[in-house]
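User: Can you help me understand a structure? I only have the sequence.
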Amino acid sequence: MAILIIALVMTTAMMAATLHVQNIERKADLFRQMRAAGRGKFADEG
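Assistant: Let's start by predicting it. Here is the structure, written out as tokens:
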């Protein structure tokens, strides 16, 4: 019985970690797009 509980906890932790990593990657992409857009604006002004 204890083995089942441990397996469930480990699976949940792995899923949470995967979601967390995907979230970080999505934020990094957004940040990159924002920086690219900002660079474009500055280039137009210059």
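Now, to help you interpret it: Residues 1-46 form one domain. Residues 2-45 form the longest helix (44 residues). Let me know which part you'd like to focus on.
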